[in-house]
Structure formats: C-alpha cells, structure tokens
Amino acid sequence: MNRENNEIMELVDHAVNGDKTSLEMLAAGVQDMVFNLALRMLGTVPDAEDATQEILIRVISNLSSFRKESAFQTWVYRLAVNYLLDYKKSMFAKYPLDFEFYGNDIRYAKTDEIEDLVDELSREAFAEELKMSCTNVMLQCLDAQSRCIFILGTMFRIDSRTGAEILNMTPENYRQKLSRARKKMADFLAEYCGLTGTGNCSCNRRVDYAITQRRINPAKLEFGSLEELDGQFIGECKEEMEKLDELAMTFERFPHYRSPVSARKLIENILNSSPFRKIQQY
Predict the structure, then answer these.
(1) Which range of residues forms the domain containing residue 274?
(2) Three-state SS at 228
(3) Count of domains forming the chain
(4) How is 14-63 classified by DSSP, letter by letter?
(5) Average pLDDT, stretch 237-264?
(6) 3-state secondary structure (DSSP) of residue 220
(7) How confident is the model at residue 228 (pLDDT cuts 50, 70, 90)?
(8) By the 8 A CB rule, do 76 and 33 touch?
(9) DSSP label of 257
(10) Whether the predicted model's global pTM rises above the 0.85 cut
(11) How far apart are CA 277 and CA 28, in angstroms?
C-alpha cells in the first residue's frame, strides 16, 4: 500500500474516532469525483447536486463499515454507483431516452425554420453549453449499468479489475459490456454528430432550436456556471476518450467540474442533526 493510501487510511481511523477535520478531508477529497460521476449518470446539474449530497451523507454515515479491504476511493465508488443505479428522482429517470428517440430528434428538428434568437458573439457560448448538455444526454441513451460502465471505463479510466469490483461482476464481463457500450456510442456519434466529420448535426445551428425547446436557458447556463477542474485528471480522461474509435474531437473539450456541494457545510449539518446523533449511540 503506497504512502497516499496509508495517509487516507489514517484519516479514516481518525474520522471514525470522531475527528471532524479528518472527516472533512475525506469528504472533500472525493466530492468532485462523486459529483462528476453523478453528473454523467443523471444528466443534469441539479440532479447531480442532490445525488452528491446524498452520497456524501452515505459515505460519512457508513465510514465505520469500511474494512480497508479495497482502496477508499473504490469503496466510495461502490457506494456512489449503488446509489446512482437505483436513483429514480432524476429527470431522465422520469422521461427515459434511447438512441433511436434522440436520433430522430436530431434528424427531424426544423432548425432552419427558427429565426435567430441570439447574436453571433453569444452563440459560441451557447453552442458550447449545448455541446456539454448533448454529451450528457447521449449518455442517458445507454441503460443505467452500461452508462455506468462506459463512464467508469472510458472517462474515469477505471481498470477492469477495479470496475468489476465496483459493479460486482467479473473483469471479463465488465470488459465485454464496456466494449458494447463504446460501440453503441461510437455508432451514434458517427451517424449524427457533426464534430466527427460524418454526422450533420451542428451545435451552432441547433442553438436557437434548443432555446425554443427549453433545453438551454440563455439566462442561466448550467454547465457554463460550473468551475472546471484543472490538472492531470482531465488530460487522462481526454486521452482515454481519444481511443473511442478515433472520435476524439467530439469529447476533446469534455471538462470535469468542481462540485458545488460544500463538504464542510454538509458535514456540519450532518454532525449537528438528531438522526446522526442517534446513529452514534448504537
């Protein structure tokens, strides 16, 4: 076990023994990871924020059950995945999508019949917002397990052994499901997305249509309001996306975001709540 893992395990021990600072450090260390996973799994920022808070509460409340048989991050992934796979409150859980429906929406949208609603200077920012939204919508076309495997394996670079552990399946099964999910996504992109060079959908042309359909709100850009994360993590995700059947340019600016959820504030609320004090009594 490397030094970093040893330090995390020490934080776990201190947190379980009631050290608030250690608890905050553990939660803060995984909140961005949890938020980005929730955002890709659920498709919208509000749903991801709600799910992130619930997952962090589960991490904090179940910390004493962590047996150190796997990496702490893997344990958090497992808690998050189990919660997100069964999440029924998101917009896309209520209104599910598939590739056929989304493809027809792109094919038959009468984008040329809508008057220009924004100036050219604003259009670029709105087109970027639409691209971020669209990539998340595309993920919703996969069934929940396939979506999770695609996100973990392609965007988060989770190896098949760890991914299989998180999802309670064999590494071979994980690899097979990841391959099928990647092919479905690649086929859809190649047919519809103009950024691939073969599809005819254009974010710039589709902006006005998206506004009329209330898919983006010019007054409040969901993705544009998020703070992007810097560093090696984004670069590694981009590198992995480039292996997606050479459709790299579709995802080359696919950012990862800092979680809007405050771990410190959340922990203070939890520690001061009567339900948590009852848990501590057992």
Answers:
(1) 3-281
(2) strand
(3) 1
(4) HHHTT-HHHHHHHHHHHHHHHHHHHHHHH-SHHHHHHHHHHHHHHHHHTG
(5) 54
(6) coil
(7) confident
(8) yes
(9) B
(10) no
(11) 22
